[in-house]
């Protein structure tokens, strides 16, 4: 016998779990379908930074990221769940005058001279052009955060089926049917694999390798960040060093080249850091769209079907804002026009292909 809900979400990563939470919070009945176990895709590979400033892409991205940070603060205060929310923020280092100038435009940052950096953080490699602290760019534990969103959604009545690989979304009178679930609304939040359900959706991946160090004795009050590389101090006293950017690799193996690159990153920030014991190494595949901004919105020609995927380096940062945008589209709340345009899935769908006749979408 089929069961009815308002919304089916496909994909139990940070994006799918947060969508389940915010739609359930809006009073909708929600079922989440995950082909494996929740929070085990790219989400568990992330460092967890909410780097609105370090990952700045454009003003639309920035205001969306700021809203997401605010939603995290609210979720932390109201959920009562520990998801590794760690204050302090990100210290962005300036190794050139050009980098110092670029950082100086942020009025909300605290700008430090090279001497002030040395005084505050004697353990790190002195940066010749100082550094800027972005306190608002806190970090979370990605896996725990996805679980926290799911736990909060479940409390509101959302349900979950794990180990269900969705291969087909059938159109039925009242909406859609997937396995034995019927819903008016379907959200595809399958991360890098979303294109499997949406043939023609342009999605590539960029592999990233990380390592976690037992660096007892090294006290970092901030995440250290420079040109896409970082050292993140987790609450348990360990440090996450990341990450490689490998566009042509699609496997999830860690390797010697990655190890060497991570050692070099570690030494770039803290002398001797690469000699600390490695607790864990891992790799993940960042889902990348045509322009590094996510696809969030209606799927063309499919009423009440949406995609929320392709968050590249920023899925943890953007998860709550993404979920609220999907919720607003579903319930008919107003959504900023510039966001609809900037994140429109159309820009990545079926370039040069005839959507209806050449491809067989879901
Ligand atoms: C090394 C590294 C470091 C990163 N650091 C950060 C960071 O510091 N901050 C940040 O914001 N972001 C970071 N990211 C990016 C972030 O991890 C991703 O953007 C985010 O996890 C994407 O989440 P997702 O839910 O879209 O995808 P996923 O976590 O991959 O989840 C998608 C889920 O959908 C399921 N699924 C797919 N297809 C189907 C199907 N057909 N049927 C059923 N289920 C399906 C999958 O099994 C999976 O569980 C990092 C990424 C990497 C690799």
TrEMBL record:
Reactions catalysed, as given in the entry: glycine + O2 + H2O = glyoxylate + H2O2 + NH4(+)
Any GO MF annotation of the entry: glycine oxidase activity
Location of the FAD dependent oxidoreductase domain: 6-328
Protein's pathway: Cofactor biosynthesis; thiamine diphosphate biosynthesis
Gene3D superfamilies per the UniProt record, alphabetical: D-Amino Acid Oxidase, subunit A, domain 2, FAD/NAD(P)-binding domain
Pfam families named in the record: DAO (PF01266)
Matches recorded under InterPro entries: FAD-dep_OxRdtase (IPR006076), FAD/NAD-bd_sf (IPR036188), Gly_oxidase_ThiO (IPR012727)
UniProt keywords, alphabetically: Oxidoreductase, Thiamine biosynthesis
EC number: 1.4.3.19
The name this protein goes by in its record: glycine oxidase
Gene: thiO
């Amino acid at each position: 016998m089929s069961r009815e809900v308002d919304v089916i979400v496909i994909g139990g990563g940070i994006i799918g779990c947060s969508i389940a939470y915010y739609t359930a919070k809006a009073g909708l009945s929600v079922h989440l379908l995950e082909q494996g176990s929740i929070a085990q895709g790219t989400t568990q590979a992330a460092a967890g930074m909410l780097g609105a400033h370090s990952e700045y892409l454009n003003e639309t991205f920035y205001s969306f990221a700021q809203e997401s940070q605010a939603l995290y603060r609210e979720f932390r205060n109201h959920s009562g769940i520990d998801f590794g929310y760690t204050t302090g923020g990100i210290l962005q280092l300036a190794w050139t005058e050009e980098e110092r100038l670029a950082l100086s435009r942020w009025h909300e940052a605290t700008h430090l001279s090279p001497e002030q950096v040395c005084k505050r953080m004697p353990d790190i490699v002195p940066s010749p052009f100082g550094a800027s602290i972005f306190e608002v760019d806190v970090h979370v534990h990605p896996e725990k955060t996805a679980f926290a969103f799911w736990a909060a959604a479940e409390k509101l009545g959302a349900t979950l089926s794990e180990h269900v690989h969705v291969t087909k979304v059938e159109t039925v009178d009242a909406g859609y049917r997937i396995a034995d679930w019927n819903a008016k609304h379907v959200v595809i939040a399958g991360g890098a694999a979303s294109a499997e359900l949406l043939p023609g959706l342009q999605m590539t991946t960029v592999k990233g390798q990380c390592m976690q160090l037992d660096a007892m004795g090294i006290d970092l009050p901030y995440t250290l960040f420079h040109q896409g590389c970082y050292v993140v101090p987790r609450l348990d006293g360990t440090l996450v060093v990341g990450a490689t950017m490998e566009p042509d690799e699609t496997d999830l193996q860690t390797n010697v080249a990655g190890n060497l690159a991570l050692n070099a990153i570690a030494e770039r920030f803290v002398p001797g850091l690469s000699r600390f014991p490695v607790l864990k190494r891992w790799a993940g595949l960042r889902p990348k769209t045509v322009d590094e901004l996510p696809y969030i919105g209606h799927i063309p020609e499919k009423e009440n079907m949406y995609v929320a995927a392709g968050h590249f380096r920023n899925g943890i940062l953007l998860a709550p804002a993404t979920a609220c945008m999907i919720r607003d589209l579903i319930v008919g709340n107003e959504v900023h026009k510039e966001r609809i345009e900037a994140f429109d899935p159309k820009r990545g769908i079926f370039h040069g292909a005839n959507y209806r006749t050449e491809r067989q979408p879901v």
